[in-house]
Amino acid sequence: MTRVRFVSADGGSVIEVDAAPGERLLDVAQANGQPLEGTCEGQMACSTCHVIVAAEDFARLPAASEEEEDMLDLAANVTRHSRLACQIWLSEPLENLTVRMPGASHNMQGR
Ligand code: FES
Hints:
Elements: E1 2-7, E2 14-19, H1 25-31, E3 50-53, H2 66-72, E4 82-84, E5 97-100
Parallel strand pairs: 1-5
Antiparallel strand pairs: 1-2, 3-4, 3-5
The structure holds FE2/S2 (inorganic) cluster.
FE2/S2 (inorganic) cluster binds at residues 26, 38-42, 44-49, 71, 84, 86.
């Protein structure tokens, strides 16, 4: 199992969940009540699965594809630690990954 921490947009709520290896971050978020629409279900056509990865965790993720970078350009409240949750598959190297919902306000540290 891979532990994932979801932080609300305002930082006031944190939940920790265990995900099976190979589970997609978007699916885990939605199954645990996180407000990610994921309208296109991973077809890289919506950017509504945008999350902000904790600054200290960002480098542990595989690099975003060019297509993902293009979709992030369309997302709201993007930071330099933004990623699309539909493009992140959980595995042991991502143990204790922390992501925040983008919401309406954020700082530029990606937290
Ligand atoms: S669910 Fe649409 S781009 Fe991720």
